[in-house]
Write a structure and sequence with these properties.
A: 710 residues; alpha/beta; 2-enoyl-CoA Hydratase, Chain A, domain 1; N-(1-d-carboxylethyl)-l-norvaline Dehydrogenase, domain 2; B: 406 residues; alpha+beta; 12 strands; globular
Chain lengths: 710, 406
Amino acid sequence: MSTDTTELLKGAAELFPDEVVTQAHVRHLELPGGVGRFALITLDNGFDHTKPTTFGPASLANLDAALDQVEKEAKEGEIVGVGLTGKPFIFAVGADLKGVELLKKREDALAIGQGGHAVFRRLADLGVPTFAYYNGAAMGGGVEVGLHCTYRTVSQAAPAFGLPEVFLGLVPGWGGCALLPNLIGADRAVSVIIENSLNQNKQLKGPQVYELGIADAIFEGADFLEESLRWTAAVLKGEIEVVRPEIDRDEAWDQAVARGRQIADGKVHGAAPAAYRALDIIAAAKSGDLRAGFEAEDKALADLIMGGELRSGIYAFNLVQKRAKRPAGAPDKSLARPVTKVGVVGAGLMASQLAMLFARRLEVPVVLTDIDQERVDKGVGYVHEEIDKLLLKGRVNQDKANRLKALVTGSLDKSTAFADADFVIEAVFEEMSLKQKIFAEVEAVVPEHAILATNTSSLSITEMSSQLKHPERVVGFHFFNPVAILPLLEIVRAERTDDASLATAFAVAKSLKKSAVLVKDAPAFVVNRVLTRFLGEVLRSIDEGTPVEVADRALAPLGLPMSPIVLLELVGPAVAHHVSGTLNAAFPDRFGVSENLGRIVAAGKRNLYVYDSGKPELDPEVDALFETGDVVLTEEQVRERALDAIAQEVRLMLDEGVVAEAQDVDLCLITGAGWPFHLGGITPYLDREGVSERATGRRFLEPGVASVPA
Amino acid sequence: MPRTARDVVFVDGVRTPFGKAGPKGIYHETRADDLVVKCIRELMRRNPDLPPERIDEVALAATTQIGDQGLTLGRTAGILAGLPNSVPGYSIDRMCAGAMTAVTSTAGSISFGAYDVVVAGGVEHMGRHPMGEGVDPNPRFVSEKLVDQSALFMGMTAENLHDRFPHLTKQRADEYAVRSQEKAAKAYANGKIQQDLVPITVRRTNEEAGETGWGLATQDEPMRPGTTLESLASLKTPFRAHGRVTPGNAAGLNDGATASLIAAEDFAREMELPVRMRLVSYAFAGVEPEVMGVGPVPSTEKALAKAGLSIDDIGLFEINEAFAVQVLALLDHYGIADDDPRVNQYGGAIAYGHPLASSGVRLMTQLARQFEEQPHVRYGLTTMCVGFGMGGTVIWENPNFEGAGK
């Protein structure tokens, strides 16, 4: 260990006193076949697999000390090689993000990168061959420490392997960007570092790690480490020669980087720097100059760690990983009642999607009802087709498909179908009187303990339940389309909803594998209220005279998953119009109803754009419907207006107590609207861009939360 | 329906290195099922000509069938080893002769025509499952004096054996033990043992036991090369004050597993599997539980009689060394010298250890290697004593026999 590294890591460790420290145990063994004495380093934080091994500064110092020991042994000829592996089921899952969140100064951020490099790099220079045995989950720095070794093996049972840095807002900066393309070629490296990361942090499994060439050998989980050591012995004996394919360093390299840029543009639209920084390093790695690559990694890490995008990314990651699993304000789960049968009122598309979800996740009988047999048959038919699709894709086997199909039935007779239901959800047309009538009918036939849930997106649940004998068992259960994909479920507590019903709703949500957020019975709840407000401002700009294209480009710097007009098309102009009407009725000062939108709906148009030329252009028929003013705003002006409106609306929602905290708004936007990690949902972005202060006079989050601490 | 009994052969056998039971033993943090699973996988690797789906049974023995040695180990270990779901399995218990019984029971079924090839073996992790764990002896054993209390403690039965045969002295037992260690050390030096060992990765988190992290067990932990009569003389006699049985002239408390492939000879020939030994006969017999160590005498008599052989026909002996006195009792019965070169050529359980239900297959694996080296030998036997007063003997024929000598 050089004194510099020691000092560097010591300084870093002082900034992170709560680190869960990983030990690097050195143990010696005789390799099979009389090959000689071998030092095996086990990375282990002393907890079981539910707390995976990570690298903080003290952990790196431990590995450094272990490397001191084995380096000396290697020099003195006492060992023939060095191996690195993890505790059961876990190799190592990378840097400890809690430490990153605490960093305030760029020099400290720089030290993190440099410290990692200084330690990991030693594995390439010990004087004896080094072997990484990826025995289980390996992510980020866990993958990278192995890349510095001479050889790698991977377990067929490794459940998750990846470089998620770009997903969070970092670059693989402990060697990943520089080493991986030089090991497996730029194109494959771009797939792992950029494509998988931006594709909802997709992980590789053991066999793919081998197929990509990251590992030189793969062994089954049952005796992975034994076989790895046997393989090691054979390699050291010269019985196995490891041959890796030649890397294409010509045009293919540049093409790979260009492909990476396209992927990044498609996902973050230039709005977040991490992917581009990673691609720059991958591009430069073509020269094979690792030292320069590592320096570039250090610099990129330091820049990104000191940037708001990464801080927002970590904040968002924690919301999705932690807050989503322990919803704020949910009652004690012991109050929840069992749900052994579900009723669905309505058999339209939404109702059918719900039936599918309930049957698949709860595995209890689900009965669809509607006003005529044809609709009921259609709904049940839809579910059965969806189950067949799962069967074809191999997601369920024939037995499970049989079971699921048998669970979903249809009926015209609510009194029989719902007589033993514990949970009945309605998904009929958004009309208060209709929903009230249905709830009254259902209440008359269901058992006393049954929950009545509504999938309304904007109607008042308190009003909906006002005529019932037992309004305390009514909850809002607002899903997002497509139900199977978007994780968010807004659970609405109406004025008289009791804790047991609410607890049951949260328990059901958990079984459905949804991220539940508790919201108050307020118009359009959270996601639709924010989206409608912001869309309303964009439409108002258009109504007033700003060209559609200009208004639609205005939000591009945020890197939202889709532009406002594309979002409008996805929601459907009719639904958007309906919701804006509801919100207009509630808050006429802030929510307008676009007349042009009304015209589009009246004309029965579903889309505003045509794509004949390959890129979106305003449909001339829509253009002809438009009547606009003559106030032409710039993109910047539209953006300012829209962002100010969002900030104002979120502040009002918090003041009204629609949700407990700004974190819940962000969680809703991430999981219900797909808003990106680099915005942290939205409030971290509004804070860091100064919008919050400008529009509401204050920040949403304390400095240091989703931002660099002061 | 007419049937023909089929010849049964020992195809291959492997084992884990044996460990010392207890907190400092190599397998202290290793599961018992993992030990036997890795043996099965090694057998499959060593015999690639055998399609795994052709295996008709996995018979695994353990004395204490609790926890990681429970749950119908034969079945669960098969699944864990990656054998197809179509391969069934079951568990067996005859205490120390568990793996031996796994071999003989399946051999009987092979001969009958029920199976073509099986995995038979055993495991005992005496660290995780000490002898007597969870036992609940019927009180009638004592109240009706069905057995003496000492019958439940193997060391005491060995002392009882010294009582019965006063000429089998502690001195002779210790001399036998020294030879066992010497022969084992020599067998190791000549690479006789390692070829059938499955290296096992072992985790250690307890710093007091040595270097922590993952290690690799590649040799038997209990061995004490260089053991002398003087060093043995000073050992305590834990089962009786001023007794004769010591940790030095008995096998220890051990962890380990074994597995073998047993097949119909016609099947083995068809699949081009090795034929290392041919089963001639087997027998189990009972004696008074208080002197269980003498069990091999009647079981060997019975097995020889069934085979139509005499003790003089046996060219090699693999006798389990639970206690030196128990080996001596068998040899004495037949008038064989304590240091007869046909007996336990590679040493025995006093050196390697005796993880109860696994040991039967270790004897067979070692005998098979001796058969290979000594084609002038036609017959050999494996035998062991069993708790509660039993013995088991299996007589094998050397397929390499070249027709000279016995």
